[in-house]
Design goal:
It is built from 18 helices and 2 strands. The chain has 444 residues and is an all-alpha fold. It has one domain.
Length: 444
């Protein structure tokens, strides 16, 4: 059992347990045994914090079933190794080298030391954001549904939003709240914080703390922080402008809304398209240009070390920087007066190639098994599953059983990471001691 296999097996175990629990009659509102495909699809979507559904979560599942789904979202958002490490620390066990390596691999970090403080700070950060989300959402939901139901709705949607899951207990997701400033701002805020990554949040927190205490220790931010924040802001702004422009006159989406609400809805979908599966407008009635652009946003996804999926913001930024360096005839790849290591460039290329091949292959297979849907619908569904976003044009429940199983596999690979999944299949390779001569060739 190599480290990648341990992580992949851990997620499979979580999905298996979740499927078994959702199969029970007490998990469904009807009190009958659940459909195995529905249980498997829902458990996978929850553990992989995707949000794609084949049944209405709020009406199909009982309160216990909803609690099970929420628990799977929380553990899946934490990540298998983070949750396991936290449990080991609660039991008083010491972390061995293998545990530290697995944690390093799952969080894509270079640090091996300080695992205990790292896990504690992550758990603390998650609780702060999720509890804050509950209190901010509670006035709206309590006023509309009463205190008890409002508290449950606030808790469910706060956890779902911060973990970028996109599960909602409303049959229309957030469409009924398209004109609610509170719901739109709280949900998008939680999604952004959950998708920007732990390292960025902690670095910003430490910088603010040092400034308030008059310290000059953290004068500058890391390269990771600069690339993640600048790329995230650029993608959010670009997505808002593009969706506002393409859907402005669409009577089925933004066309009938006031100007301010149009901007809010465009912003909401720009944020959500990167990581989570909520929607405040009907995705199935959007123009093809909007759907294709949202598919591109979903493919990029969130940032490393976050609860979101996709190829990540740093990956696309590294490739753009490489392109700029090539066009300028430079051999070194520089960003913010720092040189990016060749290993990171190779990893970025591998992630894009592996992800592209995965999306292309699954899209082709679904098109074969479900020829009744158009290509853009299938592509949108596949990218949404792979990037663990959860947005859909509405075709998910209508897919054939084989296509649903393909989507399940896509969500799983997208959550564990395509490179980690491949490493789990092929095993670890030791470092090579052979060096070969270099030879040039034509490219492009």
């Amino acid at each position: 059992m190599t480290v990648p296999r341990t992580i992949c097996a851990g997620f499979l175990a979580l999905i298996t347990v979740g499927t078994g629990l959702l199969l029970l009659p007490m998990a469904t509102a009807a009190g009958t045994w659940n459909d195995p495909i529905v249980a498997l699809f829902t458990a996978t979507s929850a553990v992989c914090v995707t949000g794609l559904i084949v049944v209405d979560t709020g009406s199909y599942f009982s309160p216990l079933g909803q609690v099970i789904i929420l628990a799977l979202i929380q553990v899946g958002g934490l990540g298998y190794m983070t949750a396991t490490t936290f449990l080991l620390l609660l039991l008083g066990r010491r972390l061995g080298l293998r545990d530290r390596l697995a944690l390093q691999k799952s969080m894509d970090t270079q640090e091996l030391s300080g695992a205990k403080s790292l896990i504690i700070s992550i758990i603390g950060m998650i609780l702060i954001f999720e509890i804050s989300g509950v209190f901010l959402l509670l006035p709206q939901f309590a006023h509309q549904f009463g205190l008890q139901a409002g508290l449950w709705l606030s808790l469910f949607h706060s956890i779902s939003a911060f973990n970028n899951a996109g599960f909602s207990l409303f049959s229309d997701s957030m469409i009924q709240y398209v004109q609610s400033p509170v719901i739109n701002s709280v949900i998008t805020g939680l999604v952004i914080m959950g998708g920007i990554g732990y390292q960025v949040i902690m670095e910003a927190f430490l910088w603010c703390r040092d400034r308030l205490k008059g310290r000059k220790k953290r004068a500058t931010f890391s390269l990771h922080f600069k690339i993640v924040t600048s790329t995230t802001l650029a993608l959010l702004a670009l997505g808002t402008v593009m969706l506002f422009y393409t859907e402005y006159n669409n009577p089925d989406t933004l066309g009938a809304l006031p100007l301010g609400t149009k901007l809010t809805a465009a912003w909401f979908q720009s944020v959500i398209a990167r990581t989570a599966g909520f929607n405040s407008i009907d995705i199935g009635k959007m123009h093809n240009a909007s759907l294709f652009f949202m598919a591109a946003l979903m493919f990029v996804g969130a940032s490393p070390g976050s609860t979101g999926g996709g190829i990540k913001t740093t990956t696309i930024r590294i490739l753009l920087i490489c392109t700029r360096a090539s066009l300028r005839g430079k051999e070194a790849v520089l960003a913010y007066q720092r040189e990016i290591p060749a290993s990171r460039i190779l990893k970025a290329i591998s992630v894009v190639m592996g992800s592209g091949c995965m999306v292309l292959g699954i899209t082709t297979l679904i098109a074969i098994f479900d020829p009744g849907f158009n290509f853009l619908q299938i592509l949108f569904e596949t990218v949404s599953a792979f990037a663990t976003v959860g947005l859909s044009t509405g075709i998910t429940p209508e897919l054939s059983t084989i296509s649903k199983l393909l989507i399940i596999g896509t969500m799983y690979v997208g959550r564990v990471g395509v490179l980690l999944f491949i490493a789990a299949l092929v095993g670890d390779h030791g470092p090579s001691v052979i060096s070969y001569p270099e030879e040039d060739l034509l490219v492009g």
